[in-house]
Write a structure and sequence with these properties.
Layout (H helix, E strand, L loop, with lengths): L9 H13 L4 E10 L7 E2 L3 H10 L4 H10 L4 H7 L7 E4 L5 E2 L6 E6 H6 L1 H25 L3 E4 L8 H14 L3 E2 L2 H7 L9 H5 L4 H11 L4 E4 L5 H13 L4 E6 L4 H14 L6 E5 L4 H9 L6 E4 L1 H4 L8 E9 L2 E2 L14 E7 L5 E8 L7 E2 L2 E5 L2 E2 L6 H13 L3 H4 L10 E2 L1 H14 L1
Parallel strand pairs: 6-7, 6-11, 8-9, 9-10, 10-11, 15-19
Antiparallel strand pairs: 1-5, 1-12, 2-4, 3-5, 3-17, 12-13, 14-15, 14-16, 17-18
Helix pairs in contact: 2-6, 6-7, 6-13, 7-8, 7-15, 10-11, 11-12
């Protein structure tokens, strides 16, 4: 994680400068949410809360950063000195990571003095947007895989080191079994998986020698990449290797027709007495291709998903926003065409049907009590977390329950229909009151 508070937009500093000069220091309420979902998404899986809370707890300007700001000549010395004392002292409400959400439902509510709540906008969106984007993509892969193992292979295509690690975390929350990104394993306790590259095979004179050497160096079991040259010939070499006593857990196919290739390789392995050797497939996979392979009953035991996961290739961004909903005890709302907001401190209430599927969501003011259970809970008060960080495995278990509660129309991969939450009459009345006060 990058800790510097300078990972922000310039206008956060220029607004804080103006707030400081004008004496605007009342309590503000901001909420972060998605205005709408991409056409290819029937739901979102919210993630990134742990990184957001960590950022808020650590928020502080160091001396080097303050000196750099002074050197810009844009800000008065008194304001820069004041930034040196800035800390986040507010309150945060949020649903647990792994919770399924829809448009207009808050991922986060921040209650703090205006300058604090305003300044954190850019980094909070940056963190929550990335992990929610990837977790939502990964969840679709989980639904497509039908219980088959999924592994994050996307580090080399991710947009930077931090993004690679956070993408691995988001995918694990959504239900991926592990990652190839070593630092993500160290930092978040995610199981690590790895095979070999084509270059290892090419560095040997014979493919069989590469397999034998790699298996000898990893006697506890290994996965061999078999499509560098002739995939079927390589599968037969694996059979000979296993018969010779080598411990081979799986073979990996990374190219070609994965359906036909996996069937042919499975036949060779089974005929050679290697039924226990599993098949891992990779290579430009996404949820639609995984679903096609699963529907065709491809004998593939696990999928490595990389580029299209870590870039969320079909929906590379979410239309999310962090907006002021209340200031100094009065409701505030934006009325721009197509970007209108609902004012007030809001809670999401969720009702399930008799089968345990989501029947309805209601976005209501925090004091209302519509049917269902509330999704947002207080996770930070006075700038400090109220509980220890949840392990990724626990978040993944929660996400699995959330995915199981999705209606079929939301789970559909080709033409999903997201649930549309109801907006309570009290929220609508508050919006009307805010409009009258602004006019």
């Amino acid at each position: 994680m990058i800790d510097s508070p300078l990972v922000t937009d310039l206008y956060q500093l220029t607004m804080l400068d103006a707030y400081h000069r004008l004496g605007h220091d009342g309590e503000a309420v901001f909420e972060l949410y998605a205005r709408r979902l991409p056409d290819s998404r029937g739901f979102l899986v919210v993630a990134g809360l742990e990184q957001a809370l960590e950022y808020l707890e650590r928020l502080a300007f160091g001396q080097a950063e303050l000196e750099w700001l002074r050197g810009l000549g844009r800000f008065a010395p008194g304001f820069v000195d004041w930034l040196g004392r800035l800390r986040f002292t507010g309150e945060v409400w949020a649903p647990p990571e792994g919770t399924v959400l829809f448009a207009d439902e808050p991922w986060l509510r921040v209650v703090a003095p205006l300058a604090e709540a305003q300044f954190v906008e850019s980094r909070l969106i940056n963190l929550l947007h990335l992990e929610t984007l990837i977790a939502s993509k990964a969840a679709r892969c989980v639904l497509a895989a039908g219980g088959r193992r999924l592994i994050d292979f996307g580090m080399r295509r991710a947009h930077g080191a931090e993004a690679a690690c956070l993408a691995a975390r988001a995918a694990a929350i959504a239900g991926f079994a592990g990652t190839a990104t070593v630092e993500a394993g160290r930092r978040f306790g995610i199981p690590l998986y790895g095979t070999m590259a084509h270059s290892f095979v090419q560095a040997h004179d014979r493919e069989r020698d590469a397999f034998e050497g790699f298996a000898r160096c990893h006697p506890g079991g290994t996965t061999l990449l078999i499509d560098t040259y002739d995939t079927l010939a390589a599968a037969r070499d694996v059979v000979a290797l296993v018969r010779g006593g080598a411990a081979v857990d799986a073979v990996r196919i990374d190219s070609g027709d994965l359906l036909a290739g996996s069937r042919a390789v499975r036949a060779i392995l089974d005929a050679g007495g290697c039924a226990a050797v599993r098949i891992l497939a990779s290579g430009n996979l996404d949820e639609l291709e995984i679903a096609r392979l699963v529907a065709a009953d491809a004998p593939i035991d696990a999928f490595g998903v990389g580029t299209r996961l870590d870039t969320s290739a079909d929906a590379p961004y979410l239309d999310c926003a962090y907006k002021l909903e209340e200031y100094a005890g009065r409701p505030r709302r934006k009325r721009s065409w197509g970007k209108e907001t609902w004012p007030g401190r809001k809670q999401v209430w969720r009702s399930l049907d008799a089968d345990g599927r989501i029947a309805a969501d209601v976005v209501a003011l925090e004091h209302e009590r519509p049917p269902g259970r509330p999704l947002l809970e207080c996770v930070m008060r006075n700038g400090r977390r109220l509980r220890a960080p949840a392990p990724v495995a626990g978040l993944a278990a929660h996400a699995a329950r959330e995915l199981a509660s999705l209606p079929a129309r939301c789970r559909d991969l080709a033409a999903p229909e997201p649930l549309v939450p109801a907006i309570s009459e009290a929220v609508r009345a508050l919006a009307a009151a805010a409009d009258r006060a602004a006019d």
